[in-house]
Each structure stands twice: as C-alpha cells, then as structure tokens.
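Recall that a protein's primary structure is simply its ordered list of amino acids. Everything else, from secondary elements to tertiary packing, is in principle encoded there. The following example makes that idea concrete.
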Amino acid sequence: MDPKLIDDCVHCGFCLPTCPTYVLWGEEMDSPRGRIHLMKQHVEGTPVTPEMAGHFDACLGCMACVTACPSGVRYDRLIESTRVEVERRHERDPRERAVRGIVFSLFPYPRRLRLARPAAALGRRMAGYLGRADASLGAMAALAPEAGRRQRLPRLVRARGERRAVVGMLTGCVQREFFPQVNAATARVLALEGCDVVIPPQGCCGALSVHSGRAEQARRLAARTVRAFERAGVRTVVVNAAGCGSSMKEYGELLGREPGFEVRDLSEFLAELGPAAKRHPLPLSVAYHDACHLAHAQGVRSQPRELLAGIPDLELREVPESAICCGSAGTYNIFQPEAARELGDRKARAVAAAGAELLVSANPGCTMQIAAAMRRAGREIRVAHTAEVLDASLRGVAL
C-alpha cells in the first residue's frame, strides 16, 4: 500500500453514492473512503484483523469510485495492493481456503474448464442442493451457463477485402470455454472490417488473479500471455472481455516492463478504426449494460453505444442505475454470494425496467450474473455480446 496514494483521499464523500456495498448497507467501512481509512491504519501499524479483511473482501473492485472521485484517488491501485497484503497476512478459515483453491485451480486454466463443462451443466440443475451445503458452491453452480458448441478458431483469420490492420485476439478462459460463439463473432467482425486476426496459442491473461491479490500467479500468467503475443509479432491485441482488457492494460505495472503491443477493447478498437463494411438492419430493442471494468476501469462508454446505434433499425435503450455494479466482479459472486445476489437482483429489476428485447454485455461474468438474476425473477431475457450483434448486422442474419 502506497502511503502517498492513501493521502490523496480528502474524505469528501463523492464516492459514497457510487459504491455498491455502501448503497446496499450504508456502512462507512464498506465505502471506498472507509476502506482507505483502514488501509491507513494498517500502514501505520495495525495488523490485518478478520474484520478488516472482511471489509476489503466485500469490495467489488468495480472502480465506480475512481470515476466519481474529484481528487483523482487511485483506489484501483490501492485495493489491488491491499488484496495482496490480505492474502499474505490474513489466515482464512478452511472453508474459504477450499473454495478459493477450487476457483484458482480451475478458472485460469481453459483446459480444466473444458473438462468441467459437463459438471457445470449438472451443477446448475443441482444449484439449490449445493447452496444448502455451501453458499459459494451453490452460487457457482447457479451461474453456470448452457455452454455453447465448441468452435475451433484458426491461428489466422484473413481480412475480407482490403486489409486495414493486423491484430492479435485474446480468447480468454470463461469466454473461450463457455461463450465460444462470442470469440467466433469477434474474429468475423474484425475480418469483415478489414483486419487480419492473429490468434496464437494462449492461456489465461491473469485478470482473476490480479483482482484477488494472487500476485505471483497473476505475474506468471501475464508473462506467458505477453510472450504469446510478442512471438506472434502483433502490435495491437483486441480483447472482448472487460475484466481481461482492464488487467492487460496494466501489464507494465504488474510486470515491470511494457509489453511490445497495445491493448484495445473490441469496441474501442472498432470505433478508432471506423466502419468499412455495410450494416444490415436489425429490428431490435437493445439495452446496453456497462461492464464496470470497461466503463470505470478503462473509460470505454461511448464507443459500444456508437457501434450499436450505427446499426439500422436497432433501438438502443439505457439501463437505469447503469453505473452500479451487477455483482459479478470476477469471482465476487462466488466468494461473496449474498451481496452479489442482492446486486444482481437490483440489476435485474433495472434491466427489466428498460423493457428491451435483448441485453448486450461486454463481459462474460456480467452476462452470467445478470442472466442468473433474471432467471430468479422469472424474467429471462436474451443476452448477447456487442460482437454478436455487430456480426449479425454485418452478415445480414437474424440474431
């Protein structure tokens, strides 16, 4: 924890109404301002107590407070370094250690996730039984999507027509194994817009580990990802998962050196590139959900909306309370299932209020979280990634 970053906070309180846990509970120590106070106490010598660790664990890391702060406090850096300290100093109970062990030995490894897909489908049907045994296991099972048909992507997808750019593409872990259709749509959209898409062999980018204070695992996975794309010789890597893109943009700080490529979210890259391919009409009403690690951590808000608004006959609707986290936050909905459920139910009500036919999300965690909350409320809604909507429009097919 950097004392200088801690002292940047002037305790003005502008962060309070933007913080999901403060909105839920109204507790000072469960606000960014309160957590920074606890960080200061620790820097000044107070050990990490179970109560202190609990307040840090309750933070979603959504970074809405970073957007709201008039003093430019780097709460993102503070909470990530604090979580590293919590993992070093705090002794978790056996149940917590077991759940975390399962998550971090499974989710960052796509091949293991692939083997777990049949169990995930069964677990979703048994979520109620698992929840009675353990809330985190029940939450994990309830979130599991119906996995799409596995789609193998070639190492190189050639541009259609004139080549305008050459990019690398991150396939991810959860995205790759549970939402393969999103990766396929991403590659097609980039190719249709004139890009050669290079897809080297790759693994986890390290985002989940970064956000949970597992620094060594995060650095190892990040270094492997950097090597994969540097060997591929690309200068730009396009990412279609908000949490992954957010972490990859901070690789320089994590690894102590800048990688040999820049990272761009898909919508950010396409907006910068500009449209070339024809858009066909999609007569749909669409509610766009702001993933926290896209809107707050990366500052990418207008670009996805511009891309969707550029599709003929598509009606774009806003979701009320769009800046409040849905409760996914990487692994938060597994480790903090009660708070995540409250936030998910709140987001489901907001999505329902928009009255759209389709919900568009740019992060697999958000997609699973909101879909599960909508199912609980008996208001199931179709959910798609921005790439899938663009793909349908560019190819002139139904979504």
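Residues 284-395 form a domain with the Rossmann fold fold (CATH 3.40.50). The two ends are 47 Å apart (CA to CA).
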